Every structure is written in C-alpha cells, then in structure tokens.
C-alpha cells in the first residue's frame, strides 16, 4: 500500500489521528484512535474523566480527486457505549469509534515480504496543521522494528 493509499485510511480526530478499518460489518465503519484525545484530566491522573456524552468532535476524512486531496469534515457526537468504546485498562491509550458505514474500507492488503521497514505509523501531527494543501497535513513514520515496539506496549 502506498503512502497515498494510507492517507485514505487515516482520519483526523479532533486534534489527533485515527485509522479507519472495516470488519465484516456492512452497517458501520470503525476508527482506532487514542483515548487521551477524549480525556479531560491531567495525563498522569489515575482515573481520567472523558469529555461529556453528547460532545461534538470533528472527524476529517481525506479523498483524492483529480490529483488533489480534498478534506471532508464530519461532526461526530460522542455517545459512550454506543459509538465510543475506550479500552478498559487505564494504561492502554486506545479507543474505537463507530461511525456510519463508509464504502471502500473493506479491502485487506497483504504483502508477501515482511521486512521491518514496511510498517508505518501515519497521522496528522499538529506541526503540519498550517499546511495549505490537505494532503500535506499528513505524514507517515517508518517503524524500524515494529514487532519489538508493539511488544513493549
């Protein structure tokens, strides 16, 4: 999958990023993102509170059309247990968002090679917010040793 193809699967979630995925469910599409984007307390607090039910968070999708990237902002109304599912362990910074079905995310890409430099973390770092072109607000970061990184979490 090329960097441009990865952009399609990456969504801006408020001030952070998420990854779109489509399990075998034609009713909804899902976003894996960071739990801290929805928490209101200090990062080191034991039991951090979430933003209020009914809060609006902007989701910004990107589409490629005629050699240009187009941003599509969509409001997301947070409903805990309905469309917002945080990981139950406090130390795991992950949440799944459930959104209406978006076509085109049901493909699974598998490569025959499995070298460490083929894995990337992709997203919308804040330092790129002022870029004029939507496609330039996105960046991939290569992970040198993905498996060791993942096991260290």
Assembly classification: single chain
Strand composition percent = 25-35%
Order of helices and strands: HEEEEEEEEEH
| Radius of gyration from CA coordinates | 16 Å
Major sheet: arrangement of strands: 5-4-1-2-3-7-6
Characterize the main sheet.
Answer: 7 strands, antiparallel
Roughly how many Å apart are the termini?
25 Å
Helix content: under 10%
**Number of DSSP strand runs:** 9
> Helical region count?
2
**Uncertain segments:** none
Structural class: mainly beta
Mean pLDDT: 75
Shape: globular
Describe, in plain words, how this protein is organized in 3D:
- It is built from two helices and nine strands, in the order αβββββββββα.
- The mean pLDDT is 75.
- The longest helix has 6 residues, at 3-8.
- The strands form two sheets. Strands 5-4-1-2-3-7-6 form a seven-stranded antiparallel β-sheet. It has a two-stranded antiparallel ribbon with strand order 8-9.
- 8% of the residues lie in helices and 35% in strands.
């Amino acid at each position: 999958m090329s960097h441009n193809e990865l952009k399609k699967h990456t969504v801006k979630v408020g001030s952070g990023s998420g990854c779109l995925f489509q399990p075998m469910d034609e009713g909804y599409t899902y976003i894996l993102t960071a739990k801290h984007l929805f928490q209101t307390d200090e990062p080191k607090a034991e039991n951090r509170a979430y933003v209020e039910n009914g809060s609006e968070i902007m989701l910004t999708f990107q589409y490629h059309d005629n050699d240009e990237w187009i941003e599509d902002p969509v409001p997301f109304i947070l409903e805990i247990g309905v469309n917002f599912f945080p990981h139950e362990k406090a130390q795991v910074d992950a949440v799944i968002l459930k959104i209406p079905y978006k076509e085109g995310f049901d493909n699974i890409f598998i490569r025959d090679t499995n070298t460490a430099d083929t894995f990337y973390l992709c997203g919308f770092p804040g330092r790129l917010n002022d870029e004029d072109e939507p496609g330039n607000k996105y960046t991939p970061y290569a992970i040198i040793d993905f498996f060791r990184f993942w096991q260290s979490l």
